[in-house]
Amino acid sequence: MSELILQSLYSGLLAGGSYALIALGLALVFGTMKIINLAHGELVLLAAYIAYMAESMLKINPLLAIPLALIVVCLASVIVYFLVSKIVKDRELNSLLLTYGVGIVLTNAILLIWKSDIHSTSNEWFQQSLVLGSLYSMNSEVTFFVVSLVLIVLVWLWLSKSWYGRAVRAVASNRDAAKLMGINPRWTELISFVLSGVLATFAGVALYSYGVIQPELGSALTVKAFIITVLAGAGSIPGVLLGAVLLGVVEALTTTMFSSALQELTGMLLFLLVLFVLPNGLFGANRRRG
Amino acid sequence: MKQYRWMYLAVAAVVLYVLVPLLLGGNLYLMSLVVASLTIGGIALAWALLGNLGGMVSFGQAAFFGVGSYVSALLTLKFGLPVLPAMLLGGVGASLASLAMLPALRLKGPYFALAILAYAQIFRILAMEFRGVTGGAGGLSGIPQLPTVFGFDLSAKVGGYLVILSIVVVFLWIYYLIRKSYYGLALKAMHESEDATRVVGVNSTLLKAMMLLVSAFMTGMVGAFNTHYINFLEPDYAFGSSWTVIPIIAAIFGGYRTIFGPLAGAVAIYMIDQLIFKNLIPNGHQIILGVLLVLMIIFCPSGLVPVLVEKFKGKTHAEA
Amino acid sequence: MKIKLAVWAIALTAGFGVTTAQAEEFAVGSVISLTGANARGGSGMHEGIMTAVEVFNRQQSKHKIKLVTIDDESAPAKAIAGVEQLASQNVVAITGGATSDLVGPASTAANKLGLVYITSGGTSEELISQGYKKFFRINNTSGYVHAMTGMFSDMGIKSLSIIYSTKKSTNELAVDVDKIMTAKGVKVTLHPFDPAITDFKPILNKVRLQDRPDAINMLGYENDYVGILRAAKVLKPNVKALVGVWQIANAKMAGDFPDLVPNVSGTEILPYPVAFSTAEGKLFETTFKALYHKSPDYLGEYGFVQSMALFEAIARAADKGSLKKGGLADEMRKTDRDTLIGRLQFNDKGDNPNFIQHIGQHQGGKIVIVWPKEFATGKMNFPGVPW
Q1: Inter-chain touch A276–B104, beta carbons under 8 Å
Q2: How far apart are CA B154 and CA B166, in angstroms?
Q3: First-residue to last-residue Cα distance in chain B
Q4: Domain B2-319 adopts which CATH fold?
Q5: How do residues A43-52 score in pLDDT, each as one tens digit?
Q6: Do A119 and C256 touch (CB under 8 A)?
Q7: Which long-range CB contacts under 8 A does A254-259 form with residues at least 24 apart?
């Protein structure tokens, strides 16, 4: 039994790493603009499909598809920002609905272009198993866990140390004051969206490498990302990783100890629990600014 | 002015209750579309009511729809209740289920919206798991159809149409009454400033809860209707996300701040999508709906119908 | 008087001549999932149906089938509306239905309108207990179940783990396989999973450490198989066989995931490379390839078989003159012919009593039929796993 639990903790940890990568882009935009981009999952999926196209048509490693995917997904992300910025009033609510519409457009576009077949990487190395003691995983899972960690650290450093990063936080905190200080809020918001696109790209390529993709996956990804964002609490980057790992571990433990039919259920219950009991998320309270 | 209002309503009643069945009743396909669009319209109405009077946007109407469907189906199948009362109880069941969502009321906008989404998922999984009661993934079959009332067979297409039409009309009336009443006034004020109303002594949380119950009841009853009309019930279908999404698009299109808007939007969107878009892009015509939603939010967030009404009003004013 | 008779005779023969010179056209409706959750299964069946239209119209000139297709978008309400629309366009019958969820409502609608409905996507047991006189199907759940349990018996396994999706059809399969194998004295453990799951390592680990079965039965769809097989390759449970049901033993899986499928089996009627030995099979293959530029798979085969049976019945009923009087259902019931999936007949409930699946195993990039013996094209690799 303990072997089972250990393995599920390990699997959950790795899954959490990948979830964090998917959620980070959404959390970033939400933290800086208080906007939930409901099309985020579709952006991740778009990157995954581009990785598929690269691998199947050019026979290259999915990782090499990243430059092309970056261009496409960041462009899409900028378009979303452009649309959102056109909203006149009630931005919080209307952006929800607008991005939902964009999500529908993207999902159907993916369906039209790539049809409904499932796809995943055929790269051997990614699928090979990596055994640490009695803990099993695939190479791809460990690889992208590391990638996820690196990206999270980079983003966190960028937000806290770089000029642009601090500008983004300033705008998030108080838009008008930031303006007075000479920061152009539009630019920083645009940067947030672009960065979100970059993160979505990595998440998508990762998804293609360790998982199976199909057009309907977009909204499920967005929901997961949002759950993790809430778990983390607005504005906390390390919180995203911890929240994601928490979700991954809880899911894996549910499967092992009860039944995997209930896996989704525990995710939802965890989400509601945090919403009701800790409205600032697990770590949001630490970073509340005025 | 009021006289004209009554005239319009009377004419509308005649058209909807008499002319439509007479003229379109033979065309089963068209009638199917109308019934489906009215079903969506009912949900859109409930959604708009929750948004306008309760100030809460929900992304999980499917939760109430599903609960209403299952409650009504089970009451008729397992307990032998007659269909029409069971439908009412389906709505009540959905209201009771919404009580579980009360803690979510103090959440802000997007959090509430997505919390309700989580509830929809939870209900769906519960419906799958409690195999003994709900038939699990297989769902329930052999659900009784709408009955024959006063010699009129309601399970026929026209019958179904009249039932959903009546349900929707009653909902419109309830919406109108609430808006006019003291509660409506309080809710409107609350919308402007929750703190101010609290000072005056309005219990905002109680009012919000009541609106949630009403919205849940309406959506649940529509769900119950649908299950007896289609005779098909499964967790994925009953709690499917399209019962949430399409009413929202419809309500926004029709103008969710008005009473008739969501309904008009639902009929328009559904019919146009099925009759026109589907023939243009057979695979993935939903993409047009997505584009429509995006354009609506940017250019007329109050919906298309109010804009048209304004234009119409403007014209008559000019003439006067 | 004689002249009148003569004129009449000439007119009548001329009239006859005109009708026999022209082909009589029949509109057949197809309500099928081209988009939505069932898009994959629906499009596959659609391709088969279209191939049948092509083949049927080309091989004779007396009766011409015109197919009218409506996408039900994997939604029951739209399936019903689709059937109704086709009925208003006076089609003579309806074919289609990608999964049991859609076949239920669609066949009910067809029944209300008195239309013949034939499908290969309605495998649930409840569909034939509804008492619809004009409902027909060419395959059913028990055909799949008996293939798998038959092979398990021949293998002589003592313990079995069933990993199954909680979706309706796979759930049904799991319950049936469990019942039959337990009655044979085999220890069975059930592991249901939510269709949304992507990481199967926790389940496979439970199987590996707790169940320790002789064989694993995977009941799911393409994406589930990939997840399960990947997890199995990582954890390497000590099993002798991995047996899936549909969507696994085919060329697509062999081509897309060559490292995951060696020695994995699944239910499949024909081997790959598809070696159609009959004239009809060869004709089907060439026509399909000409239309779609790819090899046919089981979905296309089913669509083809169900449609050919329908078209032939229509032709017979038209010749007898009973088509317009509702005689199509009776003609359907007279069907008794050898098809790509074996002998096809319809009993009074509309079911195909002869339907039994075969088991195909991935061997060296090909699919070899390994069970039952009468249809085997090769020997079973047992024990056999992908690692």
Answers
A1: yes
A2: 12
A3: 14
A4: ABC transporter involved in vitamin B12 uptake, BtuC (1.10.3470)
A5: 999 999 999 8
A6: yes
A7: A255/A8, A255/C193, A255/C197, A255/C202, A255/C203, A256/A4, A256/A5, A256/A7, A256/A8, A256/C202, A256/C205, A256/C206, A257/A5, A259/C191, A259/C192, A259/C193
Distance CA A75, CA A73 (A): 5
Q: Which of B114, B121, B248 to mutate to test the interface with A (most CBs of A within 10 A)?
A: B114
Through-space distance between the first and last CA atoms of chain A, rounded to whole angstroms: 48
**Chain B residues with CB-CB distance to A276 below 8 A:** 103-104
Q: Mind listing the domains of chain C with CATH numbers?
A: 2-140+277-345 (3.40.50.2300), 143-273+358-375 (3.40.50.2300)
Residues A150-188 have pLDDT tens digits of 998 998 888 888 877 777 777 777 777 777 777 777 888
- At position B91, the amino acid (one-letter code) is G
Structure tokens given for C325: 């009087």
| Residue matched to tokens 């778990």 | A231
* C166 touching chain A per CB within 8 A: yes
pLDDT at A266: 85
Q: What is the DSSP string of C110-123?
A: HHHTT-EEEESS--
Any idea what the Cα angle at residue C25 is, between residues C19 and C27, rounded to 5°? 155
Tokens representing residue A277 in the block: 């009991």
Q: Say yes or no: B99 contacts chain A, CB-CB below 8 A.
A: no
Instruction: Count other Cβ atoms within 10 Å, centred on residue A68.
Output: 16
Please indicate whether, in this complex, the C-beta atoms of A256 and C205 are within 8 angstroms of each other: yes
Give residue for tokens 């920061």.
A183
Decide: helix, strand or coil at residue A238: helix
Instruction: Please spell the DSSP secondary structure of C324-353, one letter per residue.
Output: TTT-HHHHHHT-EEEETTEEEE--TTS--T
pLDDT digits (tens, 9 = 90+) for C250-272: 888 888 888 889 999 999 887 88
B103 touches chain A (CB under 8 A): yes
DSSP-assigned beta bridge partners for residue C136: C118
Residue B194 banded pLDDT, cuts 50, 70, 90: low
Q: To the nearest whole angstrom, how far is the Cα of B1 from the nearest Cα of chain C? A: 41
In which domain, by residue range, is A80 found? 12-121+134-226
Nearest to A216 among C37, C192, C226 (CB): C37
- Mean pLDDT over A194-215 rounds to 90
CA distance B93 to B87: 10
| Strands (DSSP E) found in chain A | 129-132, 135-138
Respond yes or no on whether the N-terminal peptide bond of residue C273 is cis (omega within 30° of 0): yes
Chain-centroid distance of CA C287 in Å reads 19
Q: Which of A116, A129, A260 sits opposite C202 (nearest CB)?
A: A260
Q: Which residues of B touch A272 (CB under 8 A)?
A: 104, 115, 118-119, 122
CA B114 to chain C, closest CA, distance in angstroms equals: 19
Q: Looking at chain C, which runs of residues are DSSP E strands?
A: 24-32, 63-71, 93-96, 116-119, 135-137, 159-165, 187-193, 215-219, 241-243, 265-267, 336-339, 342-345, 359-363, 366-371
Contact A100 B125 (CB under 8 A): no
Q: Domain tally for chain A?
A: 1
Nearest-5° Cα angle at C337, C333 to C340: 120
What pLDDT score does B196 carry?
Answer: 58
Over 90: is that where the pLDDT of C180 sits? yes
Entry pTM:
0.83
- With pLDDT > 70 as the criterion, what percentage of chain B qualifies? 84
**Residue type (1 letter), B272:** I
Q: Which residue of B has its CA nearest to C167?
A: B137
Residue A148 lies in a domain: yes
Per the document, the length of chain A is 290
Q: Higher model confidence: residue A79 or residue B155?
A: A79
To which H or E segment does residue B218 belong?
Answer: helix B204-230
Interface of B with C in 122-141 (CB under 8 A): 125, 128, 136-139, 141
